[in-house]
TrEMBL record, chain A:
<keyword id="KW-0249">Electron transport</keyword>
<keyword id="KW-0479">Metal-binding</keyword>
<dbReference type="InterPro" id="IPR033943">
    <property type="entry name" value="Ba3-like_Oxidase_I"/>
</dbReference>
<feature type="transmembrane region" description="Helical">
    <location>
        <begin position="264"/>
        <end position="284"/>
    </location>
</feature>
<feature type="transmembrane region" description="Helical">
    <location>
        <begin position="474"/>
        <end position="494"/>
    </location>
</feature>
<comment type="similarity">
    <text>Belongs to the heme-copper respiratory oxidase family.</text>
</comment>
<dbReference type="InterPro" id="IPR023616">
    <property type="entry name" value="Cyt_c_oxase-like_su1_dom"/>
</dbReference>
<feature type="transmembrane region" description="Helical">
    <location>
        <begin position="98"/>
        <end position="124"/>
    </location>
</feature>
<dbReference type="Pfam" id="PF00115">
    <property type="entry name" value="COX1"/>
</dbReference>
TrEMBL record, chain B:
<dbReference type="GO" id="GO:0016020">
    <property type="term" value="C:membrane"/>
</dbReference>
<dbReference type="InterPro" id="IPR002429">
    <property type="entry name" value="CcO_II-like_C"/>
</dbReference>
<dbReference type="Pfam" id="PF00116">
    <property type="entry name" value="COX2"/>
</dbReference>
<feature type="domain" description="Cytochrome oxidase subunit II copper A binding">
    <location>
        <begin position="65"/>
        <end position="170"/>
    </location>
</feature>
<keyword id="KW-0812">Transmembrane</keyword>
<dbReference type="GO" id="GO:0004129">
    <property type="term" value="F:cytochrome-c oxidase activity"/>
</dbReference>
<dbReference type="InterPro" id="IPR051403">
    <property type="entry name" value="NosZ/Cyto_c_oxidase_sub2"/>
</dbReference>
<protein>
    <submittedName>
        <fullName>Ba3-type terminal oxidase subunit II</fullName>
    </submittedName>
</protein>
<keyword id="KW-0472">Membrane</keyword>
Length: 589, 179
C-alpha cells in the first residue's frame, strides 16, 4: 500500500479478488472482440453487402457469435461483477482464493473446448464441428466436446455461486441480526434463480446430448431436449440482465450524483425475478406442436407478470437518477436531465442502455403475446428485439460499467473518457440503425438465422421504406457496432497498461434514500423464496414434460432404444408425478 | 414497508397494463378464436415416415365441400410438397395443415401471413388456414436446419376452384394409375 488513501481502493484491499475479477473480465472481453467480429461478418453477409465466407460457413460464424457473446462474454462479466460486489458489500475477501481460481479455471476450460469445437467447423477435414447455434436443438448434432465444454462451463458457474454463498455464510456468523447487504442480496437471489434454471440444461446435456453425441444412445426426443433447453433458455435472459440491474440500482444513481431511491423495492424486484424467471420458458415454444394450449397460456400469464419487476425498475432507476440530477442543481419537470453528467461514459452508456431497454421491453411484449407472436416468430424481429435487450441493455451497461469498474481492479485511471463517450454513443446509434431495421424486416417476414434471406419464389414486401433500405441500415448499424467494440477494447487495454494511481476512480457508493430497515425481514428469507420458486417450476413444467415424454416417443424419441425396464421405471415416475399433481390440483381447485 | 406515493401509483398502473395485456390475448384466443399450435396434431414416428398413410405421400386431400387437409413433410432442405412442386390449394377454401419434420427441427412460414409453425420430428403441427383470392404465397424454413437452410423454400399457389378441380382429379387419376 503506497499511501493511506490507496488502502481504501478495491485492488489494494482485496488484491486476490481483484485478480479474479480481472481474469473474468479478460476472458469476457476477448470473447466480446471475437463475437463482435463474427457479428460484423454476419451483418455484411446476410444483407449481401460483402460475402467473404461461404454461406454454409455462415452458421459456424453464427454459432460462435451466439455462444461467445450470449454465454461467454455475459457470464464471465457477471462473474467478475458479482465477485467484486460480494467482496465489496460484505467487506471481506472470498473464503479461498484457490477455490475462486478453480471455478475460473473450469469455466475457462469449458469455454476453450466449446470454442474449439465451434471453430472446427471452418476446417472440414478435421471432422469436428458444432454448427448447432446457441440453442443446439437436437437432432442437429455437435461434436461431443462442444457439449462437454458447455457442461464444464455450467458446473463452473455453480462453483462460483458456491463461492459467494460461502462468503455470505462466513459473514453471517459475525452479523447475526443484520440485513443482507443489498449487492450480496442481488447476487444470491440471482444465483438461486440460476441453480433452479440450469438444472434443465444440465439434464439435457448430461443425460441426453453427451451420451447421444458419443453414440451411447441412438436418438433423443427432439421436443424434450428443446423444452429442457427453454426451461433454461429464458432464465438465462435474466442471468444476463441481473448484473446490469445490479449496476443500475447500486452504481448508476451514484454516477448521476445521487443515491438509490429505495432499497426494499430493489429487493422485491430481485425476488420477483427469482420466482418468475423459470416458469415462463414455454413462451419460446408458442409454435411448438406437442404442448397443449393451456400450458402455453400459463407461460404467457407468468411472462406478463414478469413485466412487473422491470416496470418497477424503470421507476426506481429513473427516480434515483432524477434525485442525482437535483442534487447537482437540476430543476424543472424535465430540465433536470440537462444537469446529469453526460460527459461521463459510464453514466451515459448506462443511461442509453436503460433507454433502449424500454424499447426492447415493448417489442418483447409482442413476442410474449401468445397469438400476435405468430406474425413474428423466428423472423428477424426476434434478433432485433434481443439486440436491444441483451445486446444493448446488458452489453452496453457492461461496457459502460467497465469504465468505472476496471480502474478499481487494475488501480489505473481510465485511458480516455472522450473515447469512452464516443464508444457508447456509437453503440447506441449503431443499434438504432440495426435494430429498427431488424424489427421492420421481421414484420415483412424475413427469417432470422439465415445466410441468404433472398429467395427464388417470392419477394418480401415492406409497408414503409424498402427492403434495400433495411439491408443498408443493418449493414451500417453492424459496422458501427463492431467499431464501437474496437474502441472499447482499445480503451480498456490502454487503461490496464497505464500507470497505477492512488485514486483511479471515485468508488464510494452512498447508502439508499430509503434503507432496508423499513422492509419486512421476510424479504431476506432466501430458503422460503427458493421453496416458492421450486413449487412454481414444478407446477409449470411437470405436466408438459410428462406429456412430451409419454406421447412423444419416450425419453429418447424414435423407437425405444432404452431397456424396457428402465423405460417402465421412467413411465412409473411420470405417471406418479402426474397423478400426484392431479390430486393436488383437485384439492386446490 | 414504506412505499412512496408515486411508487404506489406506478405499481397500480403497471398492474393495470399487465392485466390489460393478458385480457387482450385471452380475448384473441377465446373471443376472436385465434387457435394456437398445440398437441392436437398427435405424434408420428419419424423413422417410418415413408410408410405413413398420409405423410408417406404428402399433399392435399379433399375432406368436405370447401375443406381440405394438407400434409407437408419438411426435410433438409425441401418441403414436400412446396419445393419441387408448388403446394396447390383452391380459392375460398378452408385448409387444415399437418406439418412434420423427417430429420431435424424445421420451421414452416407462409411469408407475409401468420401461418407459422415449428416442424419437429415425431410431432405433427396442425393448424387451419382460410384461403380467399387466387394468387401465390412464398413459404420458407425459418428454423436453422443445417448448412443449406437458406435454400429451403417453396411456393403455395391458390387456384381458381374449377382450375383446381381439374388439377385435383388429374392427380387422383395419376395416383390410382400408379397403384
Amino acid at each position: 500500500m503506497a499511501t493511506a488513501s490507496g488502502g481504501s481502493e478495491f485492488v489494494d484491499k482485496f488484491p486476490d479478488e481483484a485478480a479474479i475479477v480481472k481474469a473474468s473480465f479478460l476472458i469476457a472481453f476477448v470473447s466480446l472482440g471475437i463475437g463482435a467480429f463474427f457479428g460484423l461478418i454476419q451483418a455484411l453477409h446476410r444483407t449481401n453487402v460483402l460475402r467473404v465466407i461461404d454461406s454454409a460457413d455462415y452458421y459456424t460464424v453464427l454459432t460462435g457469435h451466439g455462444v461467445l457473446l450470449a454465454i461467454v462474454f455475459t457470464i464471465f462479466f457477471l462473474c467478475g461483477v458479482f465477485h467484486w460486489a460480494v467482496a465489496r458489500s460484505l467487506d471481506r475477501p472470498a473464503e479461498s482464493a484457490l477455490f475462486s481460481w478453480a471455478w475460473v479455471g473450469l469455466m475457462t476450460t469449458g469455454t476453450v473446448l466449446a470454442t474449439v469445437a465451434i471453430l472446427g467447423g471452418f476446417v472440414p477435414n478435421l471432422g469436428m464441428s458444432a454448427d448447432v447455434l446457441f440453442t443446439f436443438y437436437a437432432p442437429l448434432q455437435a461434436h461431443p466436446i462442444f457439449y462437454i465444454g458447455l457442461a464444464m462451463f455450467i458446473v463452473g458457474t455453480w462453483l462460483a455461486g458456491a463461492d459467494w454463498f460461502l462468503s455470505y455464510r462466513a459473514w453471517r456468523k459475525n452479523h447475526e441480526d443484520e440485513r443482507i447487504p443489498l449487492q450480496t442480496f442481488m447476487v444470491l437471489t440471482t444465483m438461486i434463480m440460476w441453480y433452479v434454471s440450469t438444472l434443465g440444461v444440465a439434464v439435457s446435456v448430461v443425460f441426453f446430448l453427451i451420451p447421444w453425441s458419443l453414440g451411447l444412445i441412438e436418438s433423443v426426443n427432439p421436443l424434450l431436449t428443446r423444452t429442457l433447453f427453454w426451461y433454461f433458455g429464458h432464465p438465462i435472459v435474466y442471468f444476463w440482465l441481473m448484473p446490469a440491474y445490479l449496476l443500475w440500482y447500486t452504481v448508476l444513481p451514484k454516477l448521476a450524483g445521487g443515491r438509490l431511491f429505495s432499497d426494499p423495492l430493489a429487493r422485491v424486484v430481485f425476488l420477483l425475478f427469482l420466482l418468475l424467471s423459470t416458469p415462463v420458458g414455454i413462451h419460446h415454444q408458442y409454435l411448438d406442436p406437442g404442448i397443449a394450449e393451456g400450458f402455453k397460456f400459463i407461460a404467457m400469464t407468468n411472462t406478463m407478470f414478469l413485466l412487473l419487476p422491470s416496470l418497477l425498475t424503470a421507476f426506481t432507476v429513473v427516480a434515483s437518477v432524477e434525485h442525482g440530477a437535483r442534487q447537482r442543481g437540476g430543476e424543472g419537470y424535465l430540465r433536470w436531465l440537462g444537469a446529469l453528467p453526460w460527459r461521463d461514459p459510464a453514466f451515459t452508456g448506462m443511461a442509453l442502455a436503460g433507454a433502449m431497454f424500454a424499447a426492447g421491453g415493448f417489442s418483447g411484449m409482442i413476442n410474449a403475446g401468445m397469438n400476435i407472436n405468430y406474425l413474428i416468430h423466428n423472423t428477424l424481429w426476434v434478433p432485433g428485439h434481443f439486440h436491444l435487450t441483451v445486446g444493448t441493455a446488458v452489453a452496453l451497461t457492461m461496457m459502460a460499467g467497465s469504465y468505472w469498474l476496471v480502474p478499481q481492479v487494475t488501480g489505473t485511471k481510465l485511458y480516455s473518457r472522450p473515447i469512452g463517450l464516443l464508444q457508447v454513443i456509437m453503440w447506441f446509434v449503431g443499434m438504432v440503425f440495426m435494430s429498427n431495421a431488424m424489427h421492420r424486416a421481421g414484420l415483412a417476414g424475413i427469417p432470422r438465422r439465415t445466410a441468404e434471406p433472398q429467395y427464388q419464389n417470392f419477394e418480401f414486401l415492406t409497408p414503409i421504406g424498402s427492403i434495400f433500405e433495411l439491408r443498408v441500415q443493418i449493414a451500417l448499424g453492424g459496422t458501427l457496432l463492431f467499431l464501437s467494440v474496437v474502441l472499447f477494447l482499445f480503451n480498456i487495454l490502454l487503461t490496464s497498461l497505464g500507470e497505477e494511481s492512488d485514486r483511479p476512480v471515485d468508488s464510494y457508493l452512498p447508502e439508499p434514500l430509503s434503507g432496508p430497515e423499513g422492509s419486512p425481514r421476510v424479504l431476506d428469507n432466501l430458503a422460503m423464496w427458493t421453496g416458492i420458486a421450486a413449487v412454481l417450476v414444478v407446477l409449470a413444467y411437470t405436466l408438459p414434460l410428462a406429456g412430451i415424454i409419454q406421447n412423444g416417443g419416450g425419453l429418447f424419441g424414435g423407437g425405444l432404444p432404452v431397456p424396457a425396464t428402465v423405460s417402465a421405471g421412467f413411465d412409473l415416475v411420470a405417471t406418479t408425478v402426474t397423478s400426484a399433481f392431479n390430486t393436488l390440483w383437485g384439492v386446490v381447485a | 414497508m414504506e412505499i412512496h406515493a408515486y411508487e404506489k401509483l406506478w405499481l397500480a398502473l403497471a398492474l393495470v397494463l399487465i392485466v390489460g395485456f393478458i385480457g387482450t390475448i385471452t380475448y384473441g384466443a377465446a373471443g376472436a378464436g385465434i387457435e394456437m399450435i398445440d398437441d392436437e396434431g398427435g405424434t408420428v414416428d419419424p423413422a417410418t415416415l415413408d410408410q405413413h398413410p398420409k405423410f408417406g405421400d404428402p399433399g392435399i386431400e379433399r375432406t368436405g365441400e370447401n375443406s381440405y387437409d394438407v400434409y407437408v413433410v419438411a426435410r433438409q432442405f425441401v418441403f414436400e410438397p412446396g419445393t419441387t412442386q408448388p403446394l396447390r390449394v383452391p380459392a375460398d377454401s378452408t385448409v387444415t395443415f399437418h406439418v412434420t419434420a423427417a430429420d431435424v427441427i424445421h420451421g414452416f412460414e407462409v411469408v407475409g401471413t401468420n401461418a407459422n409453425t415449428m416442424a419437429i420430428p415425431g410431432q405433427v403441427s396442425e393448424f387451419t388456414v382460410q384461403f380467399e383470392e387466387p394468387g401465390e404465397y412464398g413459404m420458407l424454413c425459418n428454423e436453422y436446419c443445417g448448412s443449406g437452410h437458406h435454400v429451403m423454400e417453396g411456393k403455395i399457389v391458390v387456384m381458381e376452384q374449377d382450375e383446381f378441380d381439374s388439377w385435383y382429379e388429374q392427380q387422383q387419376a395419376d395416383g390410382e394409375a400408379e397403384n
